[in-house]
Specification:
Elements lengths: L1 H20 L1 E13 L5 E15 L4 E10 L8 E11 L5 E9 L4 H7 L8 H4 L6 E10 L4 E8 L15 E9 L4 E10 L9 E11 L3 E11 L10 E12 L2 E12 L10 E13 L2 E12 L9 E13 L1
Antiparallel strand pairs: 1-2, 1-16, 2-3, 3-4, 4-5, 5-6, 6-7, 7-8, 8-9, 9-10, 10-11, 11-12, 12-13, 13-14, 14-15, 15-16
């Protein structure tokens, strides 16, 4: 009995010591929202991220993150394994990530937007790409102002396993720091298919961000060709503009997304524009709050006079520690 107790205490001690050397993290997105058209209102825990990172040495580290949120089965609080990756700093200029990794498609845009707890960035919001997936990615610093990145992933996102066709999704990008205030990002995403009669779906993204003394402005354009692997002369496009300005203890922010088809005579499901306007305040370290107003204009209803399909008010809260 004493040996069993000693073994248990030894395991507990080693585990405690290991955890003490790593870094736990928690991030919570919550909100109150009210639909001005239907009078629907609710308090909502939109997302909770529970993470832990550990540094083995100067070259190797690991990270794990659980994403607690809704799923297609109807549950509002299901835990998904979002990140479970090993990071290898192969050299001063090159690093690799393997496992369930954060994807490269829109990290630049999400950082430029800077209000993830209010709303996802465009590619993520309209489900053109996933924020995480199983695979491998790499980053290479060509110069202090030019960074290359690439990825090879399953293409199913972090909530699904690889499909039976076993086709990988790939992508490569280029980030350029033009000046101390201006940066831009180019990225090409390729989603092939095992069916020889269908075409590879591609998404080409370009974004630019300007950071001033007390404000920032961002613009991104995303073009999808061969949507759902079907060859047509039409492209789908997302144009997203966003910006913010700091005024004393408050930040005023706005954003406008426009989703359209290159053929102006054809309107597809999902075409329209979304607007967000709000004010943000940092309450204390790790806690932000944002009051914002949103609307969605459906392009299909633009001729009926009822195009403002959705109007709502949100009070978003971010808590991280």
């Amino acid at each position: 009995m004493k040996k069993i107790t000693l073994l248990f205490l030894s395991i507990l001690f080693v585990t405690t010591q290991s955890l003490a050397q790593g870094t736990p993290s928690v991030k919570i997105f919550a909100n109150y929202n009210a639909d001005r058209k239907s009078d629907f209102k609710e308090f909502e825990i939109k997302r909770s991220y529970l993470g832990y990172s550990y540094k083995f040495d100067d070259k190797f580290s690991a990270k794990i993150t659980f994403d607690v949120g809704s799923n297609s089965g109807g549950s509002s609080y299901t835990a998904f394994l979002k990140i479970a990756s090993i990071h290898w700093k192969a050299s001063q200029n090159m690093s690799l990530n393997f496992g369930m990794i954060a994807t490269k498609n829109f990290k630049f845009m999400e950082k430029s937007w800077g209000k993830r707890y209010v709303e996802k960035s465009a590619l993520d919001q309209y489900k053109w790409a996933s924020s995480a997936d199983a695979g491998i990615s790499g980053t290479y610093k060509l110069t202090e102002k030019i960074i290359l990145d690439a990825q090879l992933i399953n293409g199913e996102g972090y909530k699904k396993s690889q499909t039976s066709d076993g086709v990988f999704r790939s992508g490569a990008g280029l980030t350029i720091k033009i000046t101390d205030d201006i940066s831009c990002k180019l990225f090409r995403d390729n989603l092939p298919t095992a069916n020889d009669t269908l075409e590879t779906q591609t998404i080409t993204s370009g974004a630019i961000n300007y950071i001033g003394s007390n404000y920032n402005v961002g613009l991104e354009r995303n073009i999808m060709q061969n949507e759902d692997h079907i060859t047509t002369s039409m492209n789908r496009e997302i144009l997203s503009l966003y910006g913010s300005i700091n005024l004393a203890a408050y930040t005023i922010f706005l954003r406008r997304d426009m989703i359209s088809t290159s053929n102006k005579n054809i309107i597809q499901s999902g075409d329209g524009s979304a607007q967000i306007f709000g004010v943000e305040k940092q309450i204390t370290k790790g806690v932000k709050i944002a009051l914002n107003f949103r609307s969605w204009e459906d392009e299909a209803l633009s001729d009926s006079g009822n195009s403002m399909e959705d109007r709502s008010v949100f009070l978003n809260v971010e808590c991280k520690f």
